[in-house]
Design a protein that fits this description.
- By secondary structure, this protein is of the alpha+beta class.
- It has a single domain, classed as Immunoglobulin-like.
- About 20% of the residues lie in helices and about 40% in strands.
- The protein is built from two helices and nine strands.
- The chain has a five-stranded antiparallel β-sheet with strand order 1-2-3-7-6, with no helix packed on it. Strands 5-4-8-9 form a four-stranded antiparallel β-sheet.
- It starts with 7 loop residues before the first helix and ends with a strand.
- Keywords: Membrane, Transmembrane, Transmembrane helix.
- It comes from Lentzea miocenica.
- This is DUF4352 domain-containing protein.
Length: about 140
């Protein structure tokens, strides 16, 4: 008959190692994703309209911005895709696509996308015209 003895010290080492491994895995899985705030948010006043532009992506696949328009006095009826102009290192990009709330009201929010690739280190200007005043936000692509 074989008699197996277990050392409490051995069990304690196994438990500690298991806890360290589980803790490391939990930490790795709970790390925050890179946020859009890493690219930056620009808030500009255009008369009575507050325009918040957050760069969500500036890379080889294009440029993506979250746009928020807020006002209490002006009807926000502009076509944001037609009113937005993206400049990448001095060259104007076309083909903006707006995915968000339609024209009208005093609050609009959505995503503005450009398919033009943005090389790393490039200066990017987003200009929105058609508000009480034109607004521009500037970023540097990572």
């Amino acid at each position: 008959m074989v008699h197996i003895t277990t050392s409490w010290r051995g069990v304690a080492v196994i438990v500690v190692v298991a806890l360290v491994v589980v803790g490391a895995i939990a930490w790795w899985l709970s790390r925050p994703e890179p946020s859009s705030a890493d690219l930056g948010t620009r808030t500009v006043q255009a008369g009575d309209v507050e325009v918040t532009m957050t760069a969500l992506a500036l890379d080889g696949s294009g440029a993506v911005f979250k746009i928020v328009l807020d006002t209490h006095t002006v009807e926000l009826d502009l076509d944001l895709a037609a009113s937005a102009e993206l400049t990448v290192n001095g060259a104007v990009a076309d083909g903006a696509v707006w995915e968000g709330q339609g024209p009208g009201g005093h609050h609009r929010e959505g995503t503005l996308r450009f398919a033009t690739p943005v090389p790393a280190g490039t200066t990017v200007d987003l200009r929105v015209i058609g508000l009480p005043q034109d607004v521009t936000g500037t970023w540097s692509a990572p």
